[in-house]
Amino acid sequence: MKSEGGLKELQRLAMAKKRKQYPSVPDAALPQERHNDTTSGGLTKAILRWLDLHNHKAWRQSSEGRYRPGKQYTDVIGRVRLMKGEYLPGTHSGHGDIAAIIQGRFITWEVKIRKDRQSVKQKAFQEEVEQSGGKYFIVRSFDEFISQYNSITKTETQWQA
After folding, report:
1. Looking at the whole model, is its pTM more than 0.90?
2. Among 12-16, 83-87, 157-161, whose mean pLDDT is lowest?
């Protein structure tokens, strides 16, 4: 599901911003941004960059938990012991990967690559968001994101293929 048109437009927009930010630096000296939508991390970064370039408030939402290591102590005969650690689950399980405020509305995207499916908690969160007037999208490619973005902003993004 490789997207070419949307990613090239993203690269063009990023370069235009750099040219404006650094007008005295020649184009050859400005670093090129490379984006992909073949991994969930790459697609998430590309979406966040697009939203940033269009001046929207957007952030990546992390919901994974963390491991807290056990305490270390010395017993009565001088041996150092390590108590068992524990896993602390995340507090926002089920939230979308990306959240944004666009035109005063809360929008969230769940990034799914290949055959990933929504969990029960993600479906419940989707229902909460939609009942409160927000938008919840599942996105699998950058071009799909562009289509969803256009439906939100009621614009049509055109680029050279």
Report:
1. no
2. 157-161
